[in-house]
């Protein structure tokens, strides 16, 4: 055990840990980890089994395994770009190790005769098997290296913070796990036969080798998280009823003017939702409404109707998108639609220099700008409004209940809070929506605009890539545009981007007459926008992208979508991606490329994609396929920011959770804050940094 614990060591900032300085602390903040205790609740996404060494002859495609052997030979080859190939032999067979970039020192250290232990994913490479960029460990001939005896967790991480460092810090925090206060009421623990909190956390962070997914399911933590969520939602709803908003009488001259100029009429569903919003805006308490509408259902127009209502009443509007790409796209739409009405749209970007931004910020403060569009940059201290009346959050899945509250606070002016409209594409059954977003009212746009041609979806074995490339060539000849999405699910963004680069280079070589563009998460905002703009203008015909294009991008002329490694993606994510095509009047198609052989669930997922394009149906099948077998990783469920619980999968717990929530409020009111702090105040990535800094 470690040094004697100070009281409340777990509540200390992470810098209290050995070896954590400001630089590391800053990275941890990006993961929502501020205090030592937060490390304990930073839970693995999945596990790697490094507890045994596999004979090369026994390897199967898709396995993530440890192998050991001697390098037989090494060569440098040229396949569009320079690569290093090492042939690793363990007596049973040979495995290729492929490196896309390498220094001459690395090349030397990977020479013939060197003994290596490698960990990586097995892939097909022609007739042979390979690992790309495995983790390598050099071995000495007569000095056997010990092997792990617990499964190795893989954590959500951030640029510049290695899994190994995270694991080390979490191990340090685990030495204090017994000191965690128990926040569940006694009676709940007894009734559900929950194990002690410390045991469950230890098991998740260091599962013994041979652990099964079923055996590891952390029921107690799932319950706690749902409870915290429930308490947060109740609190938010309660607080909101106590505050005031400006009432905005119905004034629709701008809206009527816009309708006259639009080439289409709103759908019945859009009209209905707009009417619901119009009613909300006339109340004296803030609107707090969630609008759910499948991809392409026309949520932007609904948002614009709400904005025009507020602007016609003399108020300003802030519209927030999750990425620069989407913010830029909204900006362009708004300018196109609203400029003729004399309405001034202001674009606030995280990439603008203070000088570029100053003028825009001034306009907002003076009330010259009517509507501001941007990412969370919109809510930095420097951006102030003269009279903010409405906040619109598009594609809300990255914002939890606490972020919604924080935003509202920022928009507060005097005694008045702004109205808030949240838009999401994730279909979620109504009853669940009540729990998930208990603090919000709920509307659905359940109709797509007319004139869409259905999307045909096919699933193709990766080996038929050539046919796909042929199809792309044909589509481009006909003046159509194509997406190619690289969806390697790697822990590191760097590897993802690299894979996209390789694919783009390959397609460029194979399709010399096609203008190929590449967009991924590591490009700067302005570079990304530039490429997207070129794609929208048709200057780029084939866009190779990582999943950055998942939400919201709208290019009606794009009618072919190719998704690589589709077998590894969740259904809802596949559905979102596919929603990028089928937006114009040409028949669209979606090609799901998969790696043979397909697992049972993967096959069902691809089948579902082939047979339906209905978001609600997809959500149902998704739930069924996830089933109760899944332990962790609810990230793909989308909207609600839960870490281990899943509202869909764990819905049978909800009645008990609601009862527990009542008990905590009645008998342990002081635990409400501790629970919500433990589970809810951990926004991710950029958002976290921004929120903590501003
Ligand atoms: P999403 O709900 O996915 O955000 P968008 O708002 O981006 O969808 O709309 C998708 C496309 O449909 C846009 O090109 C938009 O201009 C168009 N659109 C929206 N409403 C209608 C309508 N009522 N009739 C025809 N096209 C519409
Ligand atoms: Mg949208």
UniProtKB/TrEMBL annotation:
Name a biological process GO annotation: DNA repair
Helicase C-terminal domain residues: 478-624
UniProt keyword annotations, A-Z? ATP-binding, DNA damage, DNA recombination, DNA repair, DNA-binding, Helicase, Hydrolase, Isomerase, Nucleotide-binding
What protein family is recorded? Belongs to the helicase family. RecG subfamily.
- Domain named Helicase ATP-binding: residues: 280-445
Pfam families reported in the protein's UniProt record: DEAD (PF00270), Helicase_C (PF00271), RecG_dom3_C (PF19833), RecG_wedge (PF17191)
The record's catalysed reaction(s) read: ATP + H2O = ADP + phosphate + H(+); Couples ATP hydrolysis with the unwinding of duplex DNA by translocating in the 3'-5' direction
Database matches in NCBIfam families:
PRK10917.1-1, PRK10917.1-3, PRK10917.2-2, recG
Which major enzyme category is it?
isomerase
Q: Which organism is it from?
A: Thiothrix caldifontis
* Stored SMART domains: DEXDc, HELICc
Its EC number(s) = 5.6.2.4
Query: Which protein is depicted?
Result: ATP-dependent DNA helicase RecG
> Example GO molecular function term?
ATP binding
Database matches in InterPro entries: ATP-dep_DNA_helicase_RecG, DEAD/DEAH_box_helicase_dom, Helicase_ATP-bd, Helicase_C-like, NA-bd_OB-fold, P-loop_NTPase, RecG/Mfd, RecG_dom3_C
Q: What does this protein do?
A: Plays a critical role in recombination and DNA repair. Helps process Holliday junction intermediates to mature products by catalyzing branch migration. Has replication fork regression activity, unwinds stalled or blocked replication forks to make a HJ that can be resolved. Has a DNA unwinding activity characteristic of a DNA helicase with 3'-5' polarity.
């Amino acid at each position: 055990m470690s040094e004697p614990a100070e009281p409340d060591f777990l509540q200390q900032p992470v810098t209290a840990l050995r070896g954590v300085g400001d630089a590391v602390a800053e990275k941890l903040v990006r993961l929502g980890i501020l205090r030592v205790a937060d490390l304990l609740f930073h839970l693995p996404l999945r596990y790697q089994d490094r507890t045994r060494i596999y004979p090369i002859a026994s390897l199967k495609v898709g396995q993530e395994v440890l192998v050991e052997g001697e390098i037989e030979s090494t060569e440098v080859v040229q396949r569009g770009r320079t690569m290093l190939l090492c042939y690793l032999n363990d007596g049973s067979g040979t495995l290729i190790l492929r490196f896309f970039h390498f220094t001459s020192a690395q090349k030397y250290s990977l020479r013939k005769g060197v003994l290596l232990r490698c960990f990586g994913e097995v892939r097909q490479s022609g007739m042979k098997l390979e690992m790309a960029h495995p983790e390598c460990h050099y071995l000495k001939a007569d000095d056997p290296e010990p092997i792990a005896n617990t499964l190795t967790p893989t954590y959500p991480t951030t640029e510049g913070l290695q899994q190994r460092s995270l694991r080390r810090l979490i191990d340090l925090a685990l030495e204090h796990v017994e000191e965690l206060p128990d926040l569940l009421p006694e009676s709940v623990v007894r009734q559900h036969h929950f194990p002690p909190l410390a045991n469950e956390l230890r098991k998740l962070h260091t599962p013994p080798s041979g652990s099964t997914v079923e055996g590891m399911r952390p029921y107690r933590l799932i319950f706690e998280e749902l409870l915290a969520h429930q308490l947060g939602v109740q609190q938010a709803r309660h607080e909101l009823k106590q505050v005031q908003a400006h009432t905005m009488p119905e004034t629709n001259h701008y809206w009527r003017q816009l309708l006259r100029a639009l080439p289409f009429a709103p759908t019945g569903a859009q009209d209905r939702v707009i009417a619901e919003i119009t009613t909300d805006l006339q109340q004296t308490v803030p609107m707090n409404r969630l609008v759910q509408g499948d991809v392409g259902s026309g949520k932007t127009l609904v948002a614009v109707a709400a904005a025009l209502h507020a602007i016609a009443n003399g108020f300003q509007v802030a519209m927030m998108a999750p990425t620069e790409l989407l913010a830029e796209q909204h900006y362009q739409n708004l300018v196109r639609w609203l400029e003729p009405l004399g309405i001034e749209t202001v674009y606030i970007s995280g990439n603008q220099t203070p000088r570029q931004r100053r003028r825009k910020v001034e306009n907002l403060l003076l009330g010259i700008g009517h509507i501001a569009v941007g990412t969370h940059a919109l809510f930095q201290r420097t951006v102030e409004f003269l009279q903010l009346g409405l906040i619109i959050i598009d594609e809300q899945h990255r914002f939890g209940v606490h972020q919604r509250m924080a935003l509202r606070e920022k928009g507060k002016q005097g005694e008045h809070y702004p109205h808030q409209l949240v838009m999401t594409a994730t279909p979620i059954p109504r009853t669940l929506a009540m729990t998930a977003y208990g603090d919000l009212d709920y509307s659905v746009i359940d109709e797509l605009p007319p004139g869409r041609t259905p999307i045909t979806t096919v699933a193709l074995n990766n080996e038929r890539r050539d046919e796909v490339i042929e199809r792309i060539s044909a589509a481009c000849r006909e003046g159509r545009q194509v997406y190619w999405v690289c969806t390697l699910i790697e822990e590191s963004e760097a590897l993802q981007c690299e894979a996209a680069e390789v694919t783009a280079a390959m397609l460029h070589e194979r399709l010399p007459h096609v203008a190929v563009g590449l967009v991924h998460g590591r490009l700067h905002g302005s570079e990304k926008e530039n490429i997207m703009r070129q794609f929208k203008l048709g200057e780029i015909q084939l866009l190779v992208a990582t999943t950055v294009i998942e939400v919201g991008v709208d290019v009606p002329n794009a009618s072919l979508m190719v998704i690589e490694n589709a077998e590894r993606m969740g259904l809802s994510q596949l559905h979102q991606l596919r929603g990028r095509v089928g937006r114009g009047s040409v028949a669209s198609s979606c090609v799901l490329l998969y790696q043979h052989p397909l697992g049972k669930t993967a096959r069902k997922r691809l089948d579902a994609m082939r047979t339906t394009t209905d978001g609600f149906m997809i959500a149902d099948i998704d739930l069924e396929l996830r089933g109760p077998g899944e332990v962790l990783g609810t990230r793909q469920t989308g909207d609600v920011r839960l870490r281990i619980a899943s509202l869909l999968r764990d819905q049978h717990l909800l009645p008990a959770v609601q009862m527990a929530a009542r008990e905590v409020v009645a008998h342990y009111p002081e635990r409400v804050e501790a629970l919500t702090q433990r589970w809810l105040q951990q926004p991710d990535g950029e958002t976290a940094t921004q929120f903590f800094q501003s």
